[in-house]
Amino acid sequence: MTRVQANLLLLLAAAIWGGGFVAQSTAMKAIGPFWFIGLRFAVATLAVLPFVLFEARKAKEKTSARHAKLYILIGLALFGGAATQQVGLQTTTVTNSSFITGLYVVFVPLIAVFFLRRAPHWIIWPGALMAVTGIYLLSGGHLSALTPGDLLTVVCAVFWAIQITLAGTTVSETGRPLALSAVQFAVTAVCALAVAAAVEPVSLSAIRAAAPEILYVGIFSSGVAFVLQVIGQRYTTPSQAAIFLSSEALFGASLAALLLGETMPVTGYAGCALMFIAMLVVELVPGLTRRRLPAA
């Protein structure tokens, strides 16, 4: 596969994820957030299983008990991110959610600083400042204007950052990204369905009404897009992958405007742009500066 083909795969994955924000929002008209999460990730688990079996045949080592525990922990972090994002969509817009969720790009290195004691690249601090300023502008210059959904989505981005950090270190040990995906999807499904059964009403008619969104997000956003990401990142550079994958926020905002008629004031768009720039510089600048260093 050429680099251009790989980048196009990543762009397709970002477009699918962007559409997922719209599907997650419209599903709330028919079904509760935890039923949606549980059914979504149950479908995702089934969708990724064939790839897991294929991966297992080529695996060089079996999954240890320690790795299984890490998979479950990662699944709990994924559940936290999915739950706060989905509940947040009840009181925020798809545009806000898609951009605020993308702040995990900024939070990942910050977690490395405070919990893994890794010295950060200098760009992290201006990047974090730009991200916070972007949220401020997104609120229209009044933090009191931020909805509970916006704040929940910030928490969601922290959970995604934890999930990405743990998943990155675990996959580097196991070399089994698809096995990890199946377990974390299954853990999230079980947790969400348990909460849903306890606190949310449900009916077959509600599930049927939300079925298109459940299937889209379960099969495409979780199953297909994840596989496209894994394949594409094998044939392109991390910097280029970051550019194409971070376009998820732009697809989410564009589809929300096209399909849901969402609009925002000029300051809101300025905030989205600033957050998007923060995501890009945090991903791109460290790699670019390493390339410019003279060889030893």
Features:
DMT family transporter, 80% helix, Diverse_Substrate_Transporter, 12 helices, 296 residues, mainly alpha, globular, 0% strand, transmembrane helix, single chain
Task: Kindly describe this structure.
With 296 residues, the protein is an all-alpha fold. The chain has one domain. Helices cover 80% and strands 0% of the residues. It contains 12 helices and no strands. Helix 1 runs antiparallel to helix 9, helix 3 crosses helix 8 and helix 5 crosses helix 6. It is globular and about 50 Å long. The mean pLDDT is 83. It is found in: Cell membrane. Keywords: Cell membrane, Membrane, Transmembrane, Transmembrane helix. Its main location: membrane.
In this structure, how is the largest beta sheet organized?
none
What overall geometry do the principal axes of the alpha carbons give? globular
Number of helices: 12
The succession of helices and strands, N to C, reads: HHHHHHHHHHHH
N-end to C-end Cα span: 32 Å
**Extended strand count:** 0
Keywords: Cell membrane, Membrane, Transmembrane, Transmembrane helix
Subcellular location: Cell membrane
GO cellular component, one term: plasma membrane
Pfam families: EamA (PF00892)
List the helices and strands and how they pair.
Elements: H1 3-27, H2 33-58, H3 65-88, H4 94-101, H5 104-114, H6 124-138, H7 148-174, H8 177-199, H9 204-232, H10 238-246, H11 248-260, H12 266-292
Helix pairs in contact: 1-9, 1-10, 1-11, 2-8, 2-9, 3-7, 3-8, 4-7, 4-11, 5-6, 5-7, 6-12, 10-12
